[in-house]
């Protein structure tokens, strides 16, 4: 081989082909030669075919490893389900997620496995919803189909489906083991048997709302035994619930944080005796609470929010609400006594002294509070930030002076219309406490918007 000869090798892996430029056929070189070179066509007199069939081990590995992938067709459709699931999680827009599920059945199944919340069109949790919308989807058949499709739900609302029976709750045992929150508000067709199905199928349940339902204490006992992890329960307007059912919840659910029993006429509060210190929120609006019941409510020692508004139940010679300040409610921050007309100065003084952490106190329409009560508030409520005194007939100039000279952290005074307050007293308050906002607004409900967090 001459010095000018050029040796050829594989352009991909560099494997020698035993071909040199001296063996190249050059007789046909002409005007078309450059084009053939560009296309990769070169002619030789002789070719060693063994160089194309026998390769050493090292080169073979290299050839295999560097084999071009041009013949392999790949697309997102070939991704495993785990990868598609990750892709779905990065879709922040609901329309994008819906489009994802419309691609094919496989992708729809992936979308279904990520569904965590379900509520019907007649659900009272939806904006502007009402019972007049019930009947849109009230069949147990529909509930079964949806629970079969969405088997990883954490929140389910059947609120407003007043025609549903216990039958639809049987499917919870098979498809709702991971359920965290359940709302059955205004499900008038359900009974204690349905509640036992909930207890059997939803052991991980932490939040349940039974607003305006017809469940009894027996159903609550079953629920407490089967769902001991309950933290929030709404029993407002449940006419068949009494302290017996509350006692079962207090004794079995040691993580209980919030209970709503507003307008439960059979509740006097004694069912809360021995409640867990985790219980921080009790809403007992319009209940016939007794002194022993008030003591039971605060017995856990962890109460931070208490609503006993419209409590006009009065026992002769007994100051019922004074029990709030008996020493167990030192953590109480928000107290709603709106429209408690029978509350007197003795009760106010006991609460002001026994609840040093009070930050908001609603005393609107509490006509029994007089000068001694206002003076006690001014002296003892050093952390009070908001005070509601709307339409309090017992608030006079001396009472407002006591508030002006005390309550050093006061930020807002809801005063509204008062009969005995003079313009001079109000102007003096503004002069000496210019940092306090005087509001004419009357607020019925204060504190947390809802005890039941969805």
Automatic annotation (TrEMBL):
One CC-aspect GO term: SCF ubiquitin ligase complex
Residue ranges of every copy of the F-box/LRR-repeat protein 15-like leucin rich repeat domain listed in the record: 129-268
Xref: Pfam families: At4g08330, DUF7885
Swiss-Prot/TrEMBL GO biological process terms: SCF-dependent proteasomal ubiquitin-dependent protein catabolic process
InterPro entries tied to this protein: At4g08330-like (IPR045282), FBXL15_LRR (IPR057207), Leu-rich_rpt_Cys-con_subtyp (IPR006553), LRR_dom_sf (IPR032675)
Family annotation (PANTHER family): F-BOX PROTEIN YLR352W (PTHR13318:SF95), PARTNER OF PAIRED, ISOFORM B-RELATED (PTHR13318)
Protein name: F-box/LRR-repeat protein 15-like leucin rich repeat domain-containing protein
């Amino acid at each position: 081989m001459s010095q000018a000869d050029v040796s050829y090798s594989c352009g991909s892996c560099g494997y020698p082909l035993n071909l040199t430029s001296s063996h190249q056929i050059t007789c046909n070189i002409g005007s078309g030669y450059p084009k053939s070179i560009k296309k990769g066509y070169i002619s030789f007199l002789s070719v060693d075919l063994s160089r194309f069939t026998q390769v050493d081990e090292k080169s073979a590995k290299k050839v295999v490893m560097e084999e071009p992938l041009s013949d392999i067709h790949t697309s997102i459709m070939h991704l495993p389900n785990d990868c598609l699931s990750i892709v779905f999680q990065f879709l922040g827009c609901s329309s994008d997620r819906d489009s994802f599920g419309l691609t094919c059945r496989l992708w729809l199944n992936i979308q279904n496995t990520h569904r965590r919340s379900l509520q019907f069109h007649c659900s009272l949790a939806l904006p502007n919803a009402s019972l007049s919308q019930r009947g849109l989807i009230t069949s147990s058949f529909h509930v079964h189909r949806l629970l079969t499709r969405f088997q990883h739900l954490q929140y389910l609302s059947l609120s407003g489906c007043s025609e549903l029976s216990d039958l639809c709750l049987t499917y919870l045992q098979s498809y709702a083991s991971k359920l965290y929150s359940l709302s059955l508000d205004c499900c008038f067709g359900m009974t204690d048997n349905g509640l036992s199905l909930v207890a059997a199928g939803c052991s991980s349940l932490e939040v349940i709302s039974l607003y305006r339902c017809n469940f009894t204490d027996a159903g609550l006992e079953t629920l407490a035994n089967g769902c001991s992890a309950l933290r929030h329960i709404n029993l407002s307007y449940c006419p068949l619930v009494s302290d017996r059912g509350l006692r079962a919840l207090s004794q079995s659910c040691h993580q209980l944080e919030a209970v709503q029993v507003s307008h439960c006429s059979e509740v006097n509060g004694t069912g809360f005796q021995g409640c867990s210190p985790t219980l921080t929120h009790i809403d007992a609006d319009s209940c016939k609470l007794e002194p022993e019941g008030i003591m039971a409510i605060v017995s856990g020692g962890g109460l931070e929010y208490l609503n006993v508004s419209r409590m006009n139940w009065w026992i002769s010679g007994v100051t019922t609400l004074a029990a709030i300040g008996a020493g167990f409610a030192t953590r109480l921050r928000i107290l709603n006594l709106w429209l408690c007309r029978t509350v007197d100065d003795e009760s106010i003084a006991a609460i002001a002294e026994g609840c040093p952490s009070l930050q908001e106190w609603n005393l609107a329409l509490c006509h029994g509070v007089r000068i001694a009560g206002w003076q006690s508030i001014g002296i003892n409520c050093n952390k009070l930030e908001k005070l509601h005194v709307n339409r309090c007939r017992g608030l006079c100039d001396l009472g407002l002076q006591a508030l002006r000279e005390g309550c050093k952290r006061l930020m807002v005074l809801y005063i509204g219309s008062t009969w005995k307050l003079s313009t001079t007293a109000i102007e003096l308050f503004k002069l000496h406490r210019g940092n306090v906002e005087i509001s004419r607004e009357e607020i019925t409900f204060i504190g947390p918007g809802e005890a039941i967090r969805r």
